[in-house]
Amino acid sequence: SAVISQKPSRDICQRGTSLTIQCQVDSQVTMMFWYRQQPGQSLTLIATANQGSEATYESGFVIDKFPISRPNLTFSTLTVSNMSPEDSSIYLCSARQGRETQYFGPGTRLLVL
Amino acid sequence: GQNIDQPTEMTATEGAIVQINCTYQTSGFNGLFWYQQHAGEAPTFLSYNVLDGLEEKGRFSSFLSRSKGYSYLLLKELQMKDSASYLCAVRSPGGGNKLTFGTGTQLKVEL
Predict the structure, then answer these.
(1) Whole-angstrom distance, CA of residue B50 vs CA of residue B46
(2) How far apart are CA B26 and CA B98, in angstroms?
(3) Can you say how many angstroms the Cα of residue A69 is from the centroid of all Cα atoms in its chain?
(4) What sign does the dihedral B91-B93-B95-B96 (CA atoms) show?
(5) Closest Cα of chain B to A84: distance in Å?
(6) CA–CA separation, A52 and A37 (whole Å)
(7) Alpha carbon distance B13, B77 (integer Å)
(8) Looking at CA atoms only, how far is residue A64 from chain B in angstroms?
(9) Which tens digit of pLDDT belongs to each residue from A65-82?
């Protein structure tokens, strides 16, 4: 199984600033994804991180707000730009390894003041 | 569009059996996943079904009927540590075979 780590684990940020979240997988994976989970709610897919090309965003999410990089098969970053209190959430990195499994990182808990 | 329904909450007794249902209407189907999520933690993979029938894995079993758009997760010999949120997710072809999650079922196991 793949082990996923994220940095930072949590942060408190000021309105208008940006935060970059890093995701590292301990083995090569085929797909990487970024999800958001609002308190007490389920997971919403932000985008699929594509290696060496632009990420594929879901409806309601745009590159200017959530730029994503994936320079290789084991690493990705998500930036939350120009933050507002509505961006307070848990951001989760996820990776697929093979057909039948998809794993999640421990999440980054973001609070925007 | 994608629509995945689960009960919001369930309560069961330690040692009992509980069944958590999930119904879905999605544009395409390429597998159904169940995850367990304890409060403040990341989701943990429990099971994957792509063909009809029952998959058993220890105390947990998962069933799928593709024609009915229906799945359930069966938890046997409930333990207090099974108190958690259980998430049903459907994978759809295209767009990287992304997972779409239901709202989750909060299970409380009582003495």
Answers:
(1) 14
(2) 12
(3) 10
(4) positive
(5) 22
(6) 26
(7) 9
(8) 20
(9) 999 999 999 999 999 999
Query: For residue range B23-69, what is the model confidence (pLDDT) as tens digits?
Result: 999 888 999 999 999 988 889 999 999 999 999 999 999 999 999 99
- Cβ <8 Å between B99 and A31: no
CA A61 to chain centre: 12
CB count within 10 Å of CB B23 equals: 16
Do B103 and A44 count as a contact with CB atoms less than 8 A apart?
no
List B48's β-bridge partners, or say none: B33
Q: Which amino acid is at B25?
A: Q
Burial (Cβ within 10 Å: 0-12, 13-18, ≥19) of residue A109: middle
Cβ-count burial B50-87 (b if 16+ within 10 Å, e if not): eeeeeeeeeebbbbbeeeebebbbebeebeeebbbbbb
Rg (CA), chain A: 13
DSSP B50-105: -SSEEEEETTEEEEEETTTTEEEEEE-S--GGG-EEEEEEEE-SSTTT-EEE---E
